[in-house]
Design brief:
Length: 215
């Protein structure tokens, strides 16, 4: 079986490095690349890859929301998150999307190859450090206060990320193919749910929640 892989990362050097390593395996083929989550969703729909190697912090649509959308549409695709972030907020959100693996970017390629084999066997793979985070979070789960982020709809999370990236209402309207009034309505609901009253504070919130990065 030849495993068809889609690479999703906003850093070209990362994609090129992964491409070079994957080419050394005769049973794996890179069928496409994307530099943001929104393009990833479109390519996943078009190419129906077996595996998607997905970064988290990306423009337009982050890897967490992109993964959620992709897995809502396809039950046959497996998503492997390859990220520099080991914060438990990222890990918890990723696992809730249904992603099959979470690896850190400083992992050896052999570990990624092993993760691919594991998820193709319908199992979950986590880097050792991520496993420690999951266990610790589970142990303390009873004292964790749910984030208001979970109250936002998928569309509201999309709008929030675009707002935090500095997009204007008109830009968001064009990106999401909705009216300006619809964007304004979403923004109001987001602010009400999060009890936030300024764009600056919305941006700070999005950064804290890992929706966008400053790198």
């Amino acid at each position: 079986m030849n495993t068809r892989i889609l690479l999703v990362d906003d850093h070209k050097l990362v994609r090129e490095g992964l491409n070079t390593l994957i080419e050394k395996h005769t049973d794996m083929t890179v069928v496409g690349e994307a530099d943001n989550g929104r393009t990833a969703v479109k390519l996943a729909r078009k190419l129906t890859p077996d595996i998607i190697i997905m970064d988290i912090a990306m423009p337009e649509l982050n890897g967490i929301e992109a993964t959620r959308k992709i897995l809502d549409e396809s039950k046959n695709t497996r998503v492997i998150i390859l990220s520099m972030h080991s914060d438990k907020r990222y890990v918890a959100k990723v696992l809730r999307t249904g992603a099959s693996a979470y690896l850190l970017k400083d992992s050896a390629f052999e570990e990624l190859a092993e993760a691919i084999r594991v998820v193709l066997d319908n199992r979950i793979y986590l880097s050792p450090r991520i496993t420690d985070i999951v266990i610790e979070d589970y142990v303390h789960s009873e004292s964790v206060v749910p984030s208001a982020y979970t109250e936002l709809t998928d569309r509201e999370r999309e709008v929030l990320q675009l707002i935090a990236e500095g997009k204007t209402t008109k830009d968001i309207s064009s990106t999401l193919y909705v009216s300006v009034k619809t964007v304004e309505a979403h923004r109001k609901k987001i602010m009400d749910k999060l009890d936030i009253r300024s764009i600056a504070d919305l941006t700070k919130y999005a950064i804290r929640e890992g929706m966008i990065s400053l790198d």
